[in-house]
Automatic annotation (TrEMBL):
The keyword Protein biosynthesis applies. This is Elongation factor-1 alpha. GO terms for molecular function: translation elongation factor activity. The chain crosses the membrane at residues 20-40, 156-176, 182-201, 208-232. Keywords: Elongation factor, Membrane, Protein biosynthesis, Transmembrane, Transmembrane helix.
Length: 254
């Protein structure tokens, strides 16, 4: 048995433990909210609640049997308009989005059910304008390359910071084999790359949609293990290894 320094979770001071705990709890809540957001956006791409391979395919490769507008109205936007109005919009898009029907028939529906967000919130297409909505009345080819680049760089920069600090805190746990600990710290980064790379692969070939699900599941599971293990060792784990100076733990050398 070798004596470790103070830099391990069970021996941290109370203020540092509360700092780490607050960060881990908020991060865990953020991961739950991210999962809920995925269920309410990508998870509704096929019109059914719950994430499936079809949801991933429709989100990135597209539902190339219909228009983008139809895919949205049967998917994530399904609850925002009554069935008859949605059918009218879908049929208009299937007919080639004729401008002659825009002012008398289509624009009133869009103004009533879509304009409360579209055209008022930044980053959302201004659908009450004919020149904008006609772009969505075309065959659905999924997410555009520009939107994927924008989301990908946010994911890679932002989420990697989350994984860095979660991994840093977890690296202070005791009782782990160093190779197991190092693997757990590295897994979220590896699966994040798999997740983002598979968006592009799915855009090219829908068979790669499974890798999106595998990537998200992999980094979520590893992060959950690290968060709960860290919280356990800070607050619940018995202090049977505590030394007489009350600031040092004895653990097996890794």
């Amino acid at each position: 048995m070798d004596k470790t320094s103070w830099l391990n979770l069970p021996s941290l001071s109370f203020p540092v433990k509360t700092l780490f705990t607050g960060y881990l709890m908020v991060t865990g809540l953020g991961l739950l909210m991210a999962g809920a957001q995925i269920m309410l956006t990508h998870g509704m791409a096929d019109g059914k609640f719950g994430l499936s391979v079809n949801d991933i395919v429709y989100s990135y490769y597209g539902n190339q049997t219909g228009t983008t507008l139809e895919a949205k109205l049967n998917g994530s936007m399904k609850m925002n308009a009554p069935p008859q109005e949605r059918f009218t919009l879908i049929q208009w898009a299937r007919d080639g989005a004729p401008k002659s029907e825009w002012e008398p028939k289509i624009k009133p529906i869009v103004d009533q059910y879509c304009a409360k967000c579209h055209g008022k919130l930044a980053g959302i297409p201004d659908l009450p304008k004919y020149d904008v909505i006609k772009l969505f009345a075309k065959v659905d080819h999924g997410a555009t390359e520009a939107s994927m680049v924008r989301v990908a760089h946010i994911h890679l920069f932002g989420i990697s910071f989350i994984f860095f600090f979660v991994g840093l805190i977890f690296s202070m746990t005791v009782g782990w084999n160093r190779w197991v600990k190092g693997t757990l710290v590295f897994i979220p980064f590896a699966f994040l790359v798999v997740d983002v790379a598979s968006w592009w692969l799915t855009k090219w070939n829908p068979e790669f949609a499974w890798f999106v699900i595998i990537g998200g599941f992999g980094y979520s599971l590893a992060s959950t293990i690290m968060i709960f293990t860290s919280l356990y060792q800070m607050w619940i784990m018995p202090w049977r290894g505590k030394s007489s100076d009350e600031n040092t733990w004895h653990v097996d050398a890794a």
